């Protein structure tokens, strides 16, 4: 039983990463009808931006310029990384996707793959081939809850993820931009005639997706402090699977499927040898998709952004 | 100074001259009709007026402001509102959300305010909701405000489109076949609503219509467009008896 709960805690943390990244895939698809295949690498860039910000802030704190506790540094890092990565997302949309708005979908998919390679090799060129060591911002504290070990980092990761997801939910549900995103999912022609700048909404969609990916990158760095330029590839693919499993365009779907993916991976590893983890986990998901090809909250003829 | 001035508007798609030398002058409170057979270029005129298509020649002036070089969203925000021949709806959104969406350019709170600017956001949102509800009451849809728009009957969706166009605070309202596919009962309703909008808001309205009875009852002046050219212009009575219009458009269907 303790093993079960221990795995549950781990799965929640692991699922948070998938969910945060899957949201970016699903939102962009829901609004613009294209998958941003560079999104896994956007996550990686977010992790590296977090690494740079965190390292700089820690250095400043160590030099005595500013005396701030680790928690504050972490919070600042997340906020800065999200904002900077949002800019990265806006640039990707402007340079990579906007010129292809009317082009066949395959062109946009290939653009995504190319942008991914550019990001990977760009980070490789700038940061070097050696792995980056994410600074330890907060002291790890382990709580023993009836035999289940919960670290403060895990609590923080899950909490931050949930707060961000709730904020996104409110944003899409309540604000004028959220409404515009949901409307844009249906057409590019009519929405501008209601006085809505469609290009701004498209850029904003990318910005939010990239911001969420950066938060995942930062939290990932806190939990697994070793970064390399190719870390985004497999992670990106898995989060993409979560976005499909949740149902394209569905915010709730992407969130739940992200967590489900985390659960499946962790529990498969609990039962089977860890070398077989992904083999079995993704066979299970393939099976689920056989019976629900549109995902949990997907609709056969529509993949529009919805809550 | 007229509210709207269109001078020699022309557009060519490759070898096809879709609209040629279209002229129109409208003052505040005018209600005009644009008739013509299918493919005559009526919707093309609307598309050029709203910035979806760029005319090959000519200009559109709204209060002496040329729309040339502006994006559709900017033109819409400056006061040209329209509805569509084929309904353009966002099925996953409620009726109220549709109308509020059209208030987009009037909402001033920023991204930061969306999360942290509680009072201002709330005030603006309430204002917009009230405005949207008023417009929905005008088109008699206020009791369906929270319904998904896809669940409404066809005639009601059409009326919702008018409310949505009005929410952009247009100075001139372009209605593209507002009665397409409607039954007689819905027809009376939509006529009443257009009269109300015209009467209460003193709104300038330009109407594309196929139903001649409808357009002749509503409009003060009518233009007939055939193959992209205006072949007749005048009061309903003149248009009805204009030989070229009868020949090109009415055919044998002069039942009244």
Automatic annotation (TrEMBL), chain A:
The keyword Isomerase does not apply. It is a multi-pass membrane protein. It comes from the Bacteria. InterPro entries: ABC_transp_permease (IPR001851), BCAA_transport_permease (IPR052157). The keyword Kinase does not apply. The chain crosses the membrane at residues 12-35, 42-62, 68-92, 104-127, 155-172, 193-224, 254-273, 279-297. GO terms for biological process: D-alanine transmembrane transport; L-alanine transport; L-isoleucine import across plasma membrane. Keywords: Amino-acid transport, Cell inner membrane, Cell membrane, Membrane, Transmembrane, Transmembrane helix, Transport. GO terms for molecular function: L-isoleucine transmembrane transporter activity; L-leucine transmembrane transporter activity; L-phenylalanine transmembrane transporter activity; L-valine transmembrane transporter activity. It is found in: Cell membrane. GO terms for cellular component: plasma membrane. Belongs to the binding-protein-dependent transport system permease family. LivHM subfamily. This is Amino acid/amide ABC transporter membrane protein 1, HAAT family. It comes from Desulfatibacillum alkenivorans DSM 16219.
From TrEMBL, chain B:
CDD domains: ABC_Mj1267_LivG_branched. Residues 4-252 form the ABC transporter domain. PROSITE patterns: ABC_TRANSPORTER_2. One of its GO terms (cellular component) is plasma membrane. One of its GO terms (biological process) is L-valine import across plasma membrane. Keywords: ATP-binding, Nucleotide-binding, Transport. Gene3D superfamilies: P-loop containing nucleotide triphosphate hydrolases (3.40.50.300). It holds the Pfam family ABC_tran. InterPro entries: AAA+_ATPase (IPR003593), ABC_AA/LPS_Transport (IPR051120), ABC_transporter-like_ATP-bd (IPR003439), BCA_ABC_TP_C (IPR032823), P-loop_NTPase (IPR027417). GO terms for molecular function: ATP binding; ATP hydrolysis activity; L-isoleucine transmembrane transporter activity; L-phenylalanine transmembrane transporter activity; L-valine transmembrane transporter activity. This is Amino acid/amide ABC transporter ATP-binding protein 1, HAAT family. The lineage of its organism: Bacteria, Pseudomonadati, Thermodesulfobacteriota, Desulfobacteria, Desulfobacterales.
């Amino acid at each position: 039983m303790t093993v079960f709960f221990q795995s549950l805690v781990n799965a929640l943390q692991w699922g948070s990463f998938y969910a945060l990244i899957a949201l970016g895939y699903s939102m962009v698809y829901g609004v613009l009808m294209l998958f941003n295949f560079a999104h896994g690498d956007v996550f990686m860039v977010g992790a590296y931006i977090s690494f740079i910000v965190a390292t700089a802030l820690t250095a400043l704190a160590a030099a005595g310029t500013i005396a701030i506790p680790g928690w504050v540094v972490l919070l600042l890092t997340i906020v800065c990384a999200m904002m900077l990565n949002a800019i990265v997302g806006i640039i990707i949309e402007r340079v990579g996707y906007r010129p292809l708005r009317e082009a066949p979908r395959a062109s946009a998919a290939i653009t995504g793959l190319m942008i991914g390679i550019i990001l990977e090799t760009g980070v490789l060129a700038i940061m070097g081939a050696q792995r980056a060591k994410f600074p330890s911002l907060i002291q790890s504290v382990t709580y023993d809850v009836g035999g289940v070990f919960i670290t403060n980092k895990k609590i923080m990761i899950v909490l931050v993820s949930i707060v961000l997801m709730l904020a996104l939910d409110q944003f899409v549900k309540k604000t004028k931009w959220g409404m515009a995103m949901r409307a844009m999912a249906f057409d590019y022609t009519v929405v501008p005639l209601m006085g809505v700048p469609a290009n701004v909404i498209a850029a904003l969609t990318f910005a939010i997706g990239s911001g969420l990916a950066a938060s995942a990158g930062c939290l990932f760095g806190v939990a697994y402090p070793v970064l390399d330029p190719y870390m985004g590839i497999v992670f990106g693919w898995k989060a993409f699977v979560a976005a499909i499993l949740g149902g394209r365009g569905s915010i709730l779907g992407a969130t739940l499927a992200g967590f489900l993916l985390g659960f499946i991976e962790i529990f498969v590893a609990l039962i089977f040898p860890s070398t077989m983890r992904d083999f079995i986990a993704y066979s299970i998901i393939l099976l689920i998709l056989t019976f629900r090809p549109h995902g949990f909250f997907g609709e056969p003829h529509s993949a529009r952004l919805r809550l | 100074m007229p509210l709207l001035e269109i001078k020699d508007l022309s557009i060519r798609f490759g070898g096809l001259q879709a609209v040629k030398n279209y002229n129109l002058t409208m003052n505040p409170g005018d209600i005009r009709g644009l008739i013509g057979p299918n493919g005559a270029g009526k919707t093309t005129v609307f598309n050029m007026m709203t910035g979806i298509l760029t005319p090959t020649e000519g200009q559109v002036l709204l209060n002496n402001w040329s729309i040339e070089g502006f994006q559709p969203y900017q033109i819409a925000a400056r006061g040209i509102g329209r509805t569509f021949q084929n309904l353009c709806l966002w099925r996953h959104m409620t009726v109220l959300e549709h109308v509020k969406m059209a208030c987009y350019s009037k909402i001033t709170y920023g991204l930061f305010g969306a999360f942290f600017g509680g009072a201002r956001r709330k005030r603006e949102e309430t204002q917009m909701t009230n405005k949207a509800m008023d417009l929905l009451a005008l088109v008699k849809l206020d009791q369906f405000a929270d319904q998904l728009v896809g669940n409404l009957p066809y005639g009601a969706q059409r009326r919702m489109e008018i409310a949505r166009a009005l929410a952009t605070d247009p100075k001139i309202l372009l209605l593209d076949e507002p009665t397409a596919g409607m039954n007689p009962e819905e027809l009376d309703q939509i006529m009443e609503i257009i009269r109300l909008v015209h009467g209460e808001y003193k709104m300038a309205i330009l109407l594309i219509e196929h139903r001649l009875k409808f357009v002749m009852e509503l409009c003060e002046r009518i233009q007939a467009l055939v193959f992209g050219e205006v072949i007749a212009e005048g009061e309903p009575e003149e248009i009805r008896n204009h030989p070229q219009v009868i020949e090109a458009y009415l055919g044998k269907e002069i039942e009244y």
